Amino acid sequence: MFSTTLVKDKVFHINVNSWCVNACLGFSKYALNPYLILMDAQGNVQGEGFGKATGIVGVINQALTGTVKNSGTYYLIVAADNRAPGETIVIDNVLLIGAAASPIAPLRIGMNSYPFGSVGPFLSTEESP
Predict the structure, then answer these.
(1) Which pLDDT band holds residue 1 (cuts at 50, 70, 90)?
(2) Which of 17, 25, 38, 75 has the most CB atoms lying inside 10 A of its own CB?
(3) Which of 92, 128, 122 shows the shortest CA–CA distance to 109?
(4) Distances from the Cα of 94 to the Cαs of 24, 76, 101, 116, in angstroms?
(5) Residue 60 lies in a domain
(6) Sheet of 2-6, strand order
(7) What pLDDT score does 129 carry?
(8) For residue 8, what is the DSSP state?
(9) Total domain count for the chain?
(10) Roughly how many angstroms between the first and final C-alpha of the chain, as a whole number?
């Protein structure tokens, strides 16, 4: 759980990065697909969901954008999506050094809640994130 101060009617953009365990090295490539829940100080849900999942090699991103009705402290809960453990959520293409036939090979990043690496939220209140 993370806390932040948000201002009434000012657009916020929360981006959560979930990094693959062990930088996606080796055969098991697990990353947490985060589910985001934004709550006010009284526990009322202000926003939630998966947002739009995007990613690059080793990272899955989820975003939550909106406004709040009252200024104050808000709490971001980052939960694991355990609806389909092991499901492929992002497939990235990476350059394989020394590959003769095709320099691009797919890298599968699976979904699992443990071990999941690390999660980091970023908040922006600028007009365009």
Answers:
(1) confident
(2) 38
(3) 92
(4) 12, 32, 14, 21
(5) yes
(6) 2-6, 72-80, 34-40, 45-49
(7) 45
(8) B
(9) 1
(10) 22
Q: What is the pTM of this model?
A: 0.65
Q: Which residue in the block uniquely carries the two structure tokens 């497939």? A: 91
Residue 25 DSSP one-character state: -
Q: Read off the tokens for 38.
A: 């934004």
Domain span including residue 92: 2-124
3-state secondary structure of 64: strand
% of the chain exceeding 70 in pLDDT = 46
45-90 confidence digits (pLDDT tens): 998 877 555 666 667 778 888 899 999 999 988 887 666 665 655 5
User: What tokens does 36 get?
Assistant: 């985001």
Query: Residues 6 or more apart from 101 whose CB is under 8 A from it?
Result: none
Note the pLDDT of residue 105.
Answer: 46
